[in-house]
Structures are given as C-alpha cells and as structure tokens.
Specification:
Blueprint (H helix, E strand, L loop, with lengths): L2 E2 L1 H13 L4 E10 L5 E9 L8 E5 L2 E5 L1 H6 L4 E7 L2 E7 L10 H19 L3 E9 L2 E8 L7 H16 L5 E4 L14
C-alpha cells in the first residue's frame, strides 16, 4: 500500500482544508507508460466520486483514494512533499519504477538519465528509459512527447548521447530503439 511522509500529510491536510466541505482527500492515479516509467495524477476528491473497487486509505483528517490499477502499480510507494530552491511539489518513490540494474555500468548510465536527461525531456512531456548496454553502446527507448517527435533525432544526438557519453567513459554511442511510427502525441506537431 502507499505510505505518506509527515510533510506530504501536512500539505494534503492544507489542501483539503482549503477546499469545499465535501472534499475528503486526494485521489492518486498511476499509469505505466514504459517498462519502468509511470505518470501520476493527483486530484482532490469527494465521497460521491468513489468508483467500485476503489481502495481508500484513511489518514488523520483526510483519505487517499486509489483505483484498482493504481493500487497495484503503487504497492510499497511513498508520497512525499518537497520544498526545494527550484520549487515545491509532491514526489512519488515507487519501487515498481526501479529498473533493478545489477551491473554497475547500467546503474551509472541510469543515474545520468535520471539526473541529467529526464528533467529536460520531462519538461516537454517525454521520457527516456535505458533498454540495455552492449559493448560501448547504450540502447534507449523514448516515449511520451519524444515518441514520434520530429526532433527526437536531435534530442538523442545533442542531448541524451552527449550527456551519457560525457559522464560515462565506457559509453561511446547511444542508439534509439523506439518505434517512432507508433507515437501518438509528440510534443511538437507540424
């Protein structure tokens, strides 16, 4: 089930208190969009918004409501609220989003993707996953706004590949294995 830090609980209570009297808490929705990439939505909810099969987790002063799919996808997840110099917001740590790389090289490349690549492509609705490493080549999949985007090749060569190759000496090439023809909602449309 989902866990909430005290900071997240305090912020949710604040939101619920500011909402109308019918608000009972938040609904969290999760969708798996890649092998280990998820998109989340959070919204204030009322009793009358309940759907058959919902899981309701009660806390002091509010509840968290999860549909069947979200409850399954977020087993063991933790919801936190962060206040950083760059902004504030909720953070979800979901064990299902951990690719589980055992090899140190895979973990290092994944760290570069997580810390340097995802913040940039995420701002455009995209995501990147490390697929595998063979020799000196990292294979990645692009999704969201990056899948089918006319700028995906540039994003790969000028962004993703540069970030990975500059940080990881063992990687000399990054190859996109995405089926861009099946992209449904690229960020940039002609």
């Amino acid at each position: 089930m989902i866990t909430l830090t005290q900071t997240a609980r305090d912020k949710i209570v604040e939101f619920v208190d500011e909402a109308d009297d019918e608000c009972i808490g938040i609904r969290v929705l999760a969708a798996q969009v890649g092998r280990h990439t998820f998109r989340y939505q959070m919204q204030l909810t009322r009793d009358q918004d309940a759907i058959d099969g919902d899981t309701r987790v009660d806390f002091d002063g509010f509840c968290v409501v999860l549909d069947v799919q979200t409850a399954e996808l977020m087993k063991g997840a933790t919801l936190d609220y962060l206040s950083l110099p760059t902004g504030e917001g909720f953070e979800i740590k979901n064990p299902a989003s951990d690719p589980g790389w055992e090899d140190p090289l895979h973990r290092r490349v994944q760290q570069v993707i997580d810390e340097k690549v995802l913040p940039v492509v995420g701002a455009h609705g995209g995501w990147v996953e490390l697929d595998r490493i063979e020799g000196d080549t990292a294979y990645v999949s692009l999704g969201g706004g990056c899948q089918g985007c006319s700028s995906a090749g540039f994003t790969l060569s000028a962004g993703i590949e540069q970030a990975i190759c500059q940080e990881i000496d063992e990687i000399e090439h990054v190859v996109d294995v995405t089926d861009h023809g099946s992209g449904r909602e690229p960020f940039y449309k002609e």
